[in-house]
């Protein structure tokens, strides 16, 4: 019931390019064949309207928790992060090779250092001062 394209088509299009993004279908369609079609299109969760807010929040939390664990499994760590993969991106910090959808992307030394710092500190807000000290090597005042 979306304008121009069904939710199933949106989900199928997303899955054609990205198998990792969590998908929750929120819909008024309640029939078994609708749910089956949603899951066949690639949805991780299917919730019908009307819905309970607590259930909705629980499902979103579940999707994000699973997605986070799945992303962690894609990392290969030896001490500090050496390679990291997410979605269609692959970064090798030893060789400075970066690809997105198998297309090479050139990053500067500073961009690689910043990217590595973000990856190694995933899940936390990094204060500006900390970035200046640890990425730009500016001493604290």
Could you give a quick summary of the protein structure above?
By secondary structure, the chain is α+β, with helices and mostly antiparallel strands. The protein has helices at 7-17, 32-41, 53-73, 109-120, 128-134, and strands at 24-27, 45-48, 76-78, 80-86, 89-92, 97-100, 103-104.
General description of the model:
This protein is an alpha+beta fold. The chain has two domains: 7-72, Response regulator (Rossmann fold); 75-134, Winged helix-like DNA-binding domain superfamily/Winged helix DNA-binding domain (Arc Repressor Mutant, subunit A, Orthogonal Bundle). Helix content is 43%, strand content 20%. Strands 3-4-5-6-7 form a five-stranded antiparallel β-sheet, covered by helices on one side. A two-stranded parallel sheet has the order 1-2. Strand 6 (97-100) and strand 7 form a beta hairpin. The radius of gyration is 20 Å and the shape is elongated.
CATH class division of the largest domain: Alpha Beta
Proportion in β-strands: 15-25%
End-to-end distance, in Å? 57 Å
Mean pLDDT over the residues: 83
Defining key terms:
Rossmann fold; 141 residues; elongated; Arc Repressor Mutant, subunit A; 5-stranded antiparallel sheet
Which helices and strands, and how do they pair?
Elements: H1 7-17, E1 24-27, H2 32-41, E2 45-48, H3 53-73, E3 76-78, E4 80-86, E5 89-92, E6 97-100, E7 103-104, H4 109-120, H5 128-134
Parallel strand pairs: 1-2
Antiparallel strand pairs: 3-4, 4-5, 5-6, 6-7
